[in-house]
């Protein structure tokens, strides 16, 4: 799937406590706008920022914590 919305339907949804490295973390930044990153462990995720390129952020950062939506595990 190409879009974040399409990606958000793939794999299995998990509870936050079951997240492992490599899982996808999804955020709703607006009502119908989605953002995705790759969970790295230790409450950190890698994602692409429009202004800064690929960066590592903390999920417990107040901004991201307020936008958190779901964790999904995709297996091949």
TrEMBL record:
Hydrolase is among the record's keywords: yes
GO cellular component, one term: membrane
Protein name per Swiss-Prot or TrEMBL: Hydrolase
Keyword list, A-Z: Hydrolase, Lipoprotein, Membrane, Palmitate, Protease, Signal, Thiol protease
InterPro entries named among the record's database cross-references: Murein_DD/LD_carboxypeptidase, NLP_P60_dom, Papain-like_cys_pep_sf
Domain (NlpC/P60): residue spans on this chain: 1-75
Membrane-topology annotation of the record: Lipid-anchor
GO biological process, one term: proteolysis
GO function term, MF aspect, one: cysteine-type peptidase activity
Compartmental location: Membrane
Chief localisation class: membrane
Family listed: Belongs to the peptidase C40 family.
PROSITE patterns: NLPC_P60
Keyword Transferase: no
